[in-house]
Design goal:
mainly beta; 1 helix; about 90 residues; single chain; four-stranded antiparallel sheet
């Protein structure tokens, strides 16, 4: 995904943006809800910062590139809880 995104930025998006436009990398830590799931591997009770409640799901850490108008994700990771007591389902072998 990283190679595809970088190629897209270099060949298609960057030539369309003005030289004086600021280009940034954005790290986003969002909540990925799986409230109706029961047997998803590493499903955990995670704190949702927008509602202030603990809900079933994952933390989704995303790295993206932006020029102020366009956002292109470079890579992402779904994160579970490090506490065993907060996880509903462990790793299935």
């Amino acid at each position: 995904m990283l190679l595809l995104s970088c190629g897209l930025i270099e060949t298609k998006v960057d030539p369309l943006t003005e030289e004086d436009r600021v280009k940034v990398l954005i790290f986003d830590d969002s909540f990925f809800s799986r409230t109706r799931s029961k047997t998803v591997e590493l499903l955990a009770k995670v704190h949702d910062h927008t509602t202030g409640k603990y809900v079933r799901g994952f933390r989704m850490l995303t790295l993206g590139w932006s020029d102020g108008n366009t956002f292109i994700p470079l890579c992402f990771s779904l994160l579970s809880s490090h506490k065993k007591s907060s996880r509903y389902v462990e790793i299935m072998a």
